[in-house]
Amino acid sequence: MKQLFLACRRFLHLPHFCAKCRQYSEICHGQKNREHISFFVSRTRLLRRVASLLLTAALFIVPYRAVADGMGEWIPAGGTPMEFPGHSAAACVVMEVRSGQVLYEANADTPMMIASTTKIMTAILAIELCDLTRVITIPKQAVGIEGSSAYLYEGEQLTMEDLLYALMLQSANDAAVAIALAVDGDVALFADRMNEKAEALGMTSSHFVNPNGLPADGHQASARDMAKLTAYALQNETFRTIVSTVKYSVKEGEKTASHLFVNHNRLLRTYDGAIGVKTGYTKQGGRCLVSAAQRDGVTLVCVTLSDPNDWRDHASLLDWGFSLCQYNVALQAQSFRSVIHVVGATDGVQELTLTNESTIDYISTDGRTGDVTDKICMPDFIYAPAKAGDRVGSITYYRDGEEIGTSDLVLTQSVEAEVKKRGFAAFWEKLMDWLLPSRKDSDHR
Predict the structure, then answer these.
(1) Strand partners for 102
(2) Is the CA virtual torsion 168, 160, 194, 283 positive or negative?
(3) Domain with 357 in it
(4) Residue at which a domain ends, from 258, 290, 324
(5) Domain identity same for 314 and 337
(6) pLDDT tens series, the chain, 445 aa
(7) Any catalytic annotation for residue 119?
(8) How would you label 295-332 residue by residue, b for 16+ Cβ within 10 Å and e otherwise?
(9) Structure pTM?
(10) Distance between CA 255 and CA 244 in Å, rounded?
(11) Of 296, 406, 297, nearest to 356 (Cα)?
(12) 20 to 30 Å CA-CA from 273: which of 173, 352, 386, 432?
């Protein structure tokens, strides 16, 4: 590359720009000091020639790792990504959900205040542990909680589903307490459950004290841990539905006030592909935001903690992340075809066809599809009877030696067993003929 630049400079007679001297000159003293790096710049009249040469040079540029503005590392720089946009957050993570690969991180493992993004943990626990149609009677302990509120009253009755929408859309602190009490009967016990779940998910820099994220000693998490939690929660369809909902209403009833819960997440209305997740703010911890978006088979999670410009930062960081990622299909469902020998089948059937049951796909972040190989595992033969849809093996795909997915191989045909019609002797003879074809030839000499 250095030789290419020097050749271009000599050809175009361009001045140097010294990154250390911060000046243009025909001869930079950086030539005598290798720590000074000079770049050429174009003159207006040579713009077209420069553009042509740079396009040619781009063909030789390979992916590399880089540090952006000293804030953190973007991993990896593959393909032709957008220029890294930067951000204002004290801590930040951009993660590709399927693989869990972190595309960018800054102070990712520093425990910090997470405000109402805490409610992601509260919500997924309630969804996993409770019947969402269960009617909850609001206790006195859950009424009048400070901060964001659904303004629940003592004795009011709502379903667990209603409370979850209040929690994740309205960011209701009273709903969080009501949920904790409904699950465990005690806020402290529910906090213990939150910490157990965090440990199970590998959230090593997190500790929960309450279900709503109000300031409390020791209540904190890292940006990486919040990304892990969110990637896990997004696997749950109920969770995805709730956090992607813009408005939710509760009709007035005998013991229920009418409610309209409006999602605080502005990205749901302004960012193409946004699917959640949770806002947060406290005076001590500042603005916190966990977002997720899905485009072209790729799902990204972005976490910022203590970020005064979170809406703008998330939109630009997500755009940047999507520019790195490519969705690839290694094998479409039912596109693989093969045969397997069958022993003891009626009507002289000796082979059955099979296919792959599911699609095998993967996300690449390095600008290439990679070296994709497959491995088939199945027996040499099967015994009749057999039914269409029976699993008889598997096919596994690898990218650059690493497994990317497996699909069952299933039969596309059904066959009955000959033994049912002609007895065990005929079945045994058929098996021996298949195993020892030379035996059959010798019998007919």
Answers:
(1) 95
(2) positive
(3) 331-443
(4) 324
(5) no
(6) 444 444 444 444 444 434 334 343 333 333 333 333 333 333 434 444 444 544 444 433 333 222 233 334 444 434 466 899 999 999 999 999 998 999 999 999 999 999 999 999 999 999 999 999 999 999 999 999 999 999 999 999 999 999 999 999 999 999 999 999 999 999 999 999 999 999 999 999 999 999 999 999 999 999 999 999 999 999 999 999 999 999 999 999 989 999 999 999 999 999 999 999 999 999 999 999 999 999 999 999 999 999 999 999 999 999 999 999 989 999 999 999 999 999 999 988 999 999 999 999 999 988 788 899 999 999 999 999 999 999 999 999 999 999 999 999 999 999 999 855 555 666 677 777 777 776 555 554 4
(7) yes
(8) beebbbbbbbbbbeebbebbbbbbbbbbebbbebebbe
(9) 0.72
(10) 28
(11) 406
(12) 173
End-of-domain residue from the set 305, 324, 343: 324
Paired residues of 393 in beta bridges: 409
Residue 406's alpha-carbon distances to 192, 198, 393, 400, 401, in angstroms, are: 37, 29, 10, 15, 14
Residues 383 and 356 sit within 8 Å (Cβ to Cβ): no
Residue 355 shares a structural domain with residue 303: no
175 and 229 fall within a common domain: yes
Whether 205 is catalytic: no
Residue in 38, 42, 88, 119 annotated catalytic: 119
- Please tell me the number of Cα atoms within 13 Å of 138 on its side-chain side: 24
Q: Which of 171, 206, 222, 244 is an active site residue?
A: 171
Read off the amino acid at residue 60: F
Tell me whether residue 21 is in a domain.
yes
Q: Is 407 a catalytic residue?
A: no
Kindly state whether residues 317 and 289 are assigned to the same domain: yes
Residues in the chain: 445
Q: Tokens 């009507």 label which residue?
A: 347
Question: Residue 308 falls within a domain, yes or no?
Answer: yes
For residue 366, how far is the Cα from the chain centroid?
16
